[in-house]
Write a structure and sequence with these properties.
Layout (H helix, E strand, L loop, with lengths): L13 H9 L4 H8 L3 H10 L5 H11 L3 H6 L8 H21 L15 E12 L4 E2 L5 E8 H6 L8 E7 L12 E5 L8 E7 L2 E10 L3 E5 L8 E4 L7 E11 L4
Parallel strand pairs: 1-4
Antiparallel strand pairs: 1-3, 2-7, 4-5, 5-10, 6-7, 6-10, 7-8, 8-9
Length: about 250
């Protein structure tokens, strides 16, 4: 591909070098032909941003210019045949790595790192920390990543037994707040000491449980405005169920 090179040394700005490459073509059409996404090109074209190396190599290889000229204005601008072949090899390798890099705002993730993580389903279900909310069969909204080592060695859990939901209400305020994210181990379904997600009738709650003598469970809230109550397990069959123990929570600060 040929492009107009007049006064390139007098136009060291990256945007101006892009203009030389684009010529009479529409800028966004040129970017699409180069395989550059709209957001990245907007950053270069209107904000004066310099692309990351993989994108710059892609432009240089496709346009036939030298990478050093594109990024820094170093002459000569035109790549010779040998340099062009080398640039093509670099561009191919950059394209191979591109899926691992994600978008312009993401960190590079080396090979093998994703294998360290398990992906736990996040359900659009809120365990009421106040008043109940109807529980029903749900499909995951998305999946959240947790390190396998942490799940196995710190939670002593299997990834297939874990689920993520959120908290609703203020009855556990001081421990769990409204909209907190909680990780539940559904393998722990026997009431004991600790935080559990439970079902009472058609509603689900997150509460502090304490096992009492005689087959009863005390259900407590952290917020003193909510009364403690006791469930007789023998008499509440079908109406009371432990869904799982809360083993982790996350909170957005702002």
């Amino acid at each position: 591909m040929e492009f107009y090179m007049e006064n390139s040394l007098q136009q060291p700005d990256f945007r101006q070098r892009l203009e030389l490459l684009i010529g009479a073509e529409k800028p966004y059409a040129w970017a699409a032909r180069m395989g550059i996404n709209k957001g990245s090109f907007t950053n270069m074209w209107y904000k004066g941003g310099v692309p990351r190396l993989a994108t710059a190599q892609k432009i240089a290889s496709s346009s036939g210019c030298r990478l050093e000229w594109l990024l820094h204005g170093e002459e000569p601008a035109q790549a010779d045949a040998a340099a062009g072949a080398a640039a093509e090899e670099i561009a191919v390798e950059a394209a191979r790595l591109e899926p691992m890099r994600g978008s312009e705002d993401e960190h590079f993730v080396p090979d093998g790192v994703r294998e360290e993580f398990c992906f736990i389903p996040r359900y659009n279900l809120r365990a009421s920390a106040g008043f109940g909310t109807a529980a029903c069969d749900e499909q995951p909204l998305f999946y959240m990543a947790f390190r396998r080592y942490w799940v196995k060695n710190h939670l002593n859990a299997s990834p297939r037994d874990l689920a993520v939901i959120s908290v609703k209400g203020d009855s556990m305020s001081g421990v769990l707040e409204d909209r907190d994210t909680i990780l539940i181990n559904t393998a722990e379904r026997h009431p004991g000491e600790g935080l559990f997600v439970i079902r009472i009738g058609e509603d689900i709650f997150v509460k502090q449980l304490q096992r009492l003598p005689g087959g009863a469970v005390q259900v407590k809230s952290a917020n003193p405005l909510y009364e403690t109550f006791t469930v007789d397990l023998a008499r509440a069959a079908g109406e009371f169920e432990v869904i799982g123990r809360v083993v982790w929570f996350g909170r957005q600060i702002a």
